[in-house]
Amino acid sequence: SLHRFVASLFADEQASAPFAVRGCVPEMVFNVTEQEEGCPPLQLKLPAFEICVLLEVNLRPGSGGLLARAQVAITDEHMRNIVAKAHSQITQWDLRRLDPRLAGFTQPVCAQFDIGSHWSADRDHGLFFLSNLNLTLQLPQ
């Protein structure tokens, strides 16, 4: 079979071969709220971005499935762009539309905040965090 032929091209100690496949994730729009009377839904629009799918193909016949491992990678630049686009939209939302407990405030409740990220030492995953959160809440007179 083709799998055995490819495996025979590599030394016995070679158990797998890496493949990288480039792809594009199209622009996406998520409705965060339902449409209300007279108000369109709050939406989060994420830009298109490129990804790299890293595949580790198993070359040893009979040692499991063909795919040994898969990972998806995105550049820091694309991630910063996605986060910046999301941040600029979220800070414009009236949070009263997201939480009925805020309905008693007379003016829009908008969150202002900074967003940062921290990557683990092995860079396998990241953590996003908010800081300097500010809300202005207008009470009825």
Describe it.
This protein is an alpha+beta fold and 141 residues long. It is built from two helices and seven strands, in the order H-E-E-E-E-E-H-E-E. It has helices at 2-8, 76-90, and strands at residues 16-25, 28-31, 43-46, 49-58, 67-73, 111-119, 126-135. The strands form three sheets. The chain has a three-stranded antiparallel sheet with strand order 1-4-5, with no helix packed on it. It is elongated. The termini are far apart. The relative contact order is 0.14. The model has no long low-confidence stretch (mean pLDDT 86).
How would you briefly describe this protein structure?
By secondary structure, the chain is of the alpha+beta class. It is built from two helices and seven strands.
Q: Characterize the quaternary organization of these chains.
A: single chain
- Characterize the main sheet: 3 strands, antiparallel
Give the topology string: H per helix, E per strand.
HEEEEEHEE
**Helix percentage range:** 10-25%
Question: Structural class, from helix and strand content?
Answer: alpha+beta
Please report the distance between the alpha carbons of the first and last residues: 80 Å
> What spatial form do the alpha-carbon principal axes imply?
elongated
Residues in β-strands, percent: 35-45%
